[in-house]
Amino acid sequence: MGLGWSTAEERRPLLPPPPPQARPQARGPAGGPAGRLPPLSGRVYGRRWLVLLLFSLLGFAQGLVWNTWGPIQNSARLAFGFSGWDIALLVFWGPIGFAPCFFFMWLMDKKGLRVTVLLTSSLMVLGAGLRCIPVSDLEIRKKLIHGGQLLNGLAGPTVMNAAPFLSTTWFSPDERATATAIASLLNYLGSAGAFLVGPLVVPSPNGTAHLLLASQSSTEHIKDRIEAVLYAEFGMVSLIFSAALAYFPSRPPFPPSVAAASQRLSYRRSFCRLLSNFRFLMIALAYAIPLGVFSGWSGVLDLILTPVHVSQVDAGWIGFWSIVGGCVVGIAMARFADFIRGMLKFILLLLLSGATLASTWFTLTCLTSVTHLPLTTATLYTSCILLGIFLNSSVPIFFELFVETVYPVPEGISCGVVTFLSNVFMGVLLFFLTFYHTEFSWFNWCLPGSCLLSLLLILCFRESYDRLYLDVVVSV
After folding, report:
1. DSSP structure string for 337-386
2. Residues 165 and 1 sit within 8 Å (Cβ to Cβ)
3. Predicted TM-score (pTM) of this structure
4. Helix segments in 155-218, DSSP class H
5. pLDDT tens, position by position, 361-399
6. Distance (Å) of CA 198 to CA 72, 94, 228, 229, 323
7. pLDDT tens for residues 111-138?
8. Domains assigned to the chain
């Protein structure tokens, strides 16, 4: 990434010959320039899967820690005295953590993956550790928890931006979309894990448990179970940090493709290119608006479903399956995109059309007094899960389209800008939730509106594949 990604000696056998001059150039017997060897193919290493695993686990842990409190907000209020403002703020630290996003872009561009990943994982260890400090004073404990969530939020720019950079650095062109999907969607899978772990481990105080178990749902018991979750997450984050410290190289010894070996624009020129590229701004908004709205909506899903009499456990299962479905379909779509190159816009149109229909169904279902649509567990499960599948699975496809559109802008910078915009939209919505957290009907209407806007932007977008052209055409 950036000008120093590879040395001149590494680039020379992979890069195409310079363009011909005005005079005719002699051709060799194989059709290439006379006296010049044809470009060599890149080399991939088996260790790329280990690097992908470590990075994906880091993203999984970051998503799990970020979404700890939303699925168990009722229990957290009873155990730690959290208010509705506190719950919204605990989720809000995620987008706030994107404030130094541009610093992490610069660090990745100049120092590479290893330094960036180690700094990110160390912030996560500190954040998870702060949440586990046993303090009897609840006010101090709440401040420590908020500080831990902020440090974990600071890890967001790396785990959400670096997936396309990692896939270009380590994987061949026919594996890049798949690697991007795995590395980026594991963060969402971590958020889904919080929907599963929290409600199953932490008892709910909403009175849905059997009366014989009422004594086990006391405040101290709930607090002990929450602390057990916090200690388990701290141990997992520490283990991943130790593994990355032991082995996480910045790049392979030899580039895997022509695009990986090519020089990129500088940090400053990259931003000038992005801000002046109208096509990039179109797809950036098409990504940032619906994904930002959906992320904020998912973070407070329990609060949204409470007025329609959905329990904490049911809300957790709905959130879990919506994200898991999106991750599975997203990886499958990315693998499909690796087989049929040049069809990213078509795939996005299908996914966004499905997201628009599913979000409209969910919103109208919640207005059962007006629409008279049946409000059942099956309809809520189906509409939420379909919405998560369509939107979450679009993330790696969007990332690949960003990189193709603005190449040779470094992958971390182009994807960093759009994820920053997405978190801005998410932060604005959570800001309104923080101060107007008694009414959620307007939030449901934001979902179909944002999906429809994104669909229209993609329809008007003219796609191009500059990086793919360099790998497939120029290297032949």
Report:
1. HHHSTT-HHHHHHHHHHHHHHHHHHHHHHHTHHHH-----HHHHHHHHHH
2. yes
3. 0.81
4. 156-161, 163-170, 176-201
5. 888 887 765 655 666 778 888 888 899 889 988 999 999
6. 6, 18, 10, 8, 15
7. 889 999 999 999 999 999 999 998 888 8
8. 46-202+219-248+267-475 (1.20.1250.20)
